[in-house]
Each structure stands twice: as structure tokens, then as C-alpha cells.
Design goal:
Residues 351-455 are annotated as: Lon-protease-like. This protein is of the alpha/beta class and 455 residues long. It has eleven helices and 23 strands. Helix content is 26%, strand content 25%. A hairpin with a 6-residue loop joins strand 11 (234-239) and strand 12.
């Protein structure tokens, strides 16, 4: 009996090698090659022939194109992240930590779609049908007509999709599905890639919208080959601390909408509920202003959100600590250097701790000015005025650069009752905003002078 030929597949890029190597020859990642069985040439021939549609060369302006129709899921926050709703033939991949609420949210969305007249199918490979039914009872989804299939074999799932012809199908999760065409175990690189490719082909051919649930690694990235994210139309990440009731769903990739949109949910006894005004959860409730606290307006996709930046400056030892939660640590070190050089505020012998309230992560540089003002406030022991906000990027030369869509940020802050703002000069509105005093600054030292004058 001939021995099966083995190849080694990279779980980062999907590249193959005939022998094991410490470093992948394709993407140069270390320790990512995993052994798998090579398929015979005849077995893989023409498996994806339906994907290779023949077409003539066409001029771009001559191609007829119309906007894709969207079906709302019944959950406004989820629709925002998806770009308005689910798309016929679209494939969505959603990942997140265990127990964060992926299955709960999708079961709620399927129930809403089914009640609006859509045919739905929930394929579970990790739970039995009874466990799914128990969860639906806990969520208050009484008399739900969502069809459930407890199956992990790909061929049976595809046959059920063909027979039932649902509008939306959820596969929970792709790591449990296996194909008879491969001998490797479920969850292996080859199985995940092949099963996802077959399901994607089925979605495009039949028009069913398929939602794949993906596991994540301990680093927080989606498990399996990176090619999985390229294959699908939309990639969503569930974020948030399991000890907190709030969850964020972030769009990392979306062929039918904007990326970096976020949806905010609160975990309740009856499942996940959308939070329409998320700014309220990222602001601490202080009776009076406290030192070291500054509110900024950040942009998450198209949505302006108010986030409180807290700083604590304390006397340190010979090697002071710089610690940040929710903000880039290297950027904090840079801002402290700019603060010393251009504003004369020295923290060389002080421990500096900076935190973004509510577990939110801020990646945009528009938080720079708020971070610097909160550090200065903590160092002086004097709180910033009540109703104060600030935003703006700070450069190494001490200049304050504009942040994108400054008008929307200011309007959102005014809507929530903030009355004093320090912003970059380029973001100063041409028309005054009712109820808000705006101080436009060009340099860090100007911002410090304005704040001292307000105090």
C-alpha cells in the first residue's frame, strides 16, 4: 500500500513546503508549518470549477452595476457594522473570545430575521440541538421557528443548504466542520480552508447569506489560515471584557460597507441589546471635576464617541514607569517628551499611568491633546473645568494638528452638554456652536496657557 504523501502548510499565509522548516519560505513566519496530507491530483481537479466563470474583457464604464440590496437583521447596532444589513450571497466571518456572546447575538439575529419572513438555518457543531433550544428559552425567544441542524460533516451541511434553501445560514463554528475529502482532523489548516472555500462557493452559487463563527487564538487573532479572512466578504471581531456587560463588534473588513465601524451592545439577562448612545458608558460619573481627567471625542468609523482619558502622575523611583491601558504605550512616551521640551512640564522622575475609561481602545492620534492635558492636570493636582473637552494630534515640534471631521466631533460634544473645547486651529468652526466656547490653538504651550486661564 502506497504511503500517503505529506506536505507542510503554513497557518499564517497558507503556503506549502515539501518538508518541515523552522521558517515559512513564503511569509518568513517562524514555527507556523503544520503537517497535512497532500491530495491526489485527481481528487482536487475541477472542485471549484463553478467559481471560474468565463467572461469577456469589458470596459469598466460599460459594466452595469447597482447597489446591493440589504436585509436588516432587526438589530440596529449589528446592521451598522454590516453596512446596513445582510447581503444576498454574502459570507460573514465573526470571531471573538469564548463566552463573549457570538452565538447569543447570531441566534437573536436569526430569530428576528425568521419573524420578518426570512428562511433561516442554524448549524451547530459545538452544541446539541437541546442546548441551542435551552439558550433560546433563556433569551426569551419563545416559539422561535429557526431551523437547527447539529452537524459537522461538510457534505451533509451542503446537502441541507441545497434542500432547505434558507436565506440566512449560520455555521457555528467553522473550526468544527470537516470534509470527507481530507483526512486531517477538524480545525486543522487544510480542513478550515477547504470547508470555508466550499461554503463560500455555495453562498455565491445559491444566494444564501452564510455567517461563519471563527475561534480566536490566545493572541486574539482568528484561528486558522489567514487566507480565511481574504476569502470572505466581511470580517467582524467581538471585543470587550467578559467581566463587563458591554461588548463591541468591530468591522475589520467589509466589501459592502465601511470598515472600522463599531456596534455597541450590553449583555443583559435577555441577551445582547444595542446601545444607541455609547458615549454615556465611556464617561465616568463625577459629581465634581477631578484632577487627571479629560474627555475627548474619538471617531469609530462614522460615529463620534466621547471617551474619558484618565491620568495618574505619582512620584516614582530611579526608573519611573509609563503604563497605558487602551492607548499606545510608545505614543505615551513620545507625548511626555514633547510635554517636557515644548511646554516645560517634566515627568522624568514620576510614574505616569494613563487609562481610557470603559475598556475602549483608542488608536487614532487625535487623543494626543487630551492625554497631555490630563497628565498636566494630575501633576498640578487641579481639575479641568466642568464640561471641558479636547482633541487634536500633537507633533514632535509641539504643533497641534487637526483631526478629521472636527465639526462632527464638536456637535456631538455640544449635544451631550459640553460647553468648553480646546481644539486645533484648523478644526475651529466658521459658525459658532450654540452653548459651546471653543478655544483654537496651534501649539501645545498655547493649549496649556488656555487651560491655566480657565482654571
Amino acid at each position: 500500500m502506497a504511503k500517503d504523501k505529506t506536505i507542510y502548510t503554513c497557518n499564517e499565509c497558507g503556503g506549502t513546503s515539501p518538508k518541515w522548516l523552522g521558517k515559512c519560505p513564503h511569509c518568513n513566519a517562524w514555527n507556523t508549518l503544520i503537517e497535512s496530507v497532500a491530495q491526489a491530483e485527481s481528487a482536487v481537479k475541477n472542485r471549484f470549477a463553478s467559481l471560474a466563470k468565463t467572461a469577456e474583457v469589458t470596459v469598466l464604464s460599460d459594466i452595469e452595476a447597482s447597489d446591493v440590496e440589504r436585509t436588516p437583521t432587526g438589530h440596529e447596532e449589528l446592521d451598522r457594522v454590516l453596512g446596513g444589513g445582510i447581503v444576498e450571497g454574502g459570507v460573514v466571518l465573526i470571531g471573538g473570545d469564548p463566552g463573549i456572546g457570538k452565538s447569543t447575538l447570531l441566534l437573536q439575529a436569526l430569530d428576528s430575521l425568521q419573524r420578518s419572513g426570512k428562511k433561516t438555518l442554524y448549524v451547530t457543531g459545538e452544541e446539541s440541538g437541546a442546548q441551542v433550544a435551552l439558550r433560546s428559552r433563556r433569551l426569551g425567544l419563545d416559539h422561535s421557528q429557526v431551523k437547527v441542524l447539529a452537524e459537522i460533516q461538510l457534505e451533509k451541511i451542503l446537502a441541507t443548504l441545497d434542500a432547505q434553501q434558507p436565506d440566512v445560514a449560520v455555521i457555528d463554528s467553522i473550526q468544527t466542520v470537516y470534509s470527507d475529502q481530507l483526512t486531517s482532523a477538524p480545525g486543522s489548516v487544510a480542513q478550515v480552508r477547504e470547508c470555508a472555500a466550499h461554503l463560500t462557493r455555495a453562498a455565491k452559487a445559491s444566494g444564501v447569506c452564510i455567517v461563519l463563527v471563527g475561534h480566536v487564538t490566545k493572541e486574539g487573532a482568528l484561528a486558522g489560515p489567514r487566507v480565511l479572512e481574504h476569502m470572505v466578504d466581511t470580517v467582524l471581531y467581538f471585543e470587550g471584557d467578559t467581566h463587563s456587560q458591554f461588548r463591541l463588534v468591530r468591522a475589520i473588513k467589509n466589501r459592502f460597507g465601511a470598515v472600522n465601524e463599531i456596534g455597541v451592545f450590553a449583555m443583559t439577562e435577555k441577551g445582547l441589546k444595542g446601545v444607541s448612545n455609547p458615549s454615556a458608558i465611556f464617561l465616568s460619573q463625577h459629581a465634581e471635576p477631578v484632577p487627571g481627567s479629560c474627555v475627548m471625542v474619538t471617531l469609530e468609523g462614522t460615529r463620534p464617541m466621547l471617551v474619558e482619558i484618565q491620568a495618574l502622575v505619582d512620584s516614582g523611583g530611579p526608573s519611573p514607569r509609563r503604563l497605558s491601558v487602551g492607548l499606545d504605550k510608545d505614543r505615551l512616551a513620545m507625548l511626555l517628551a514633547v510635554l517636557h521640551r515644548h511646554a516645560g512640564v517634566a515627568c522624568m522622575d514620576q510614574d505616569v499611568f494613563v487609562n481610557a475609561v470603559g475598556g475602549v481602545r483608542i488608536t487614532e492620534p487625535a487623543a494626543d491633546l487630551a492625554v497631555m492635558l490630563s497628565i498636566t492636570s494630575s501633576l498640578r493636582g487641579k481639575p479641568l473645568p466642568k464640561g471641558f473637552i479636547a482633541f487634536g494630534e500633537v507633533g514632535l515640534a509641539g504643533e497641534v494638528r487637526p483631526a478629521p471631521r472636527g465639526q462632527e466631533r464638536l456637535k456631538e460634544a455640544a449635544k451631550l452638554g459640553f460647553s468648553v473645547a480646546v481644539v486645533p486651529k484648523a478644526n475651529a468652526p466658521k459658525k459658532p456652536i450654540e452653548g459651546m466656547t471653543i478655544h483654537a490653538v496651534e501649539r501645545v504651550e498655547q493649549a496649556m496657557e488656555v487651560v491655566r486661564g480657565l482654571g
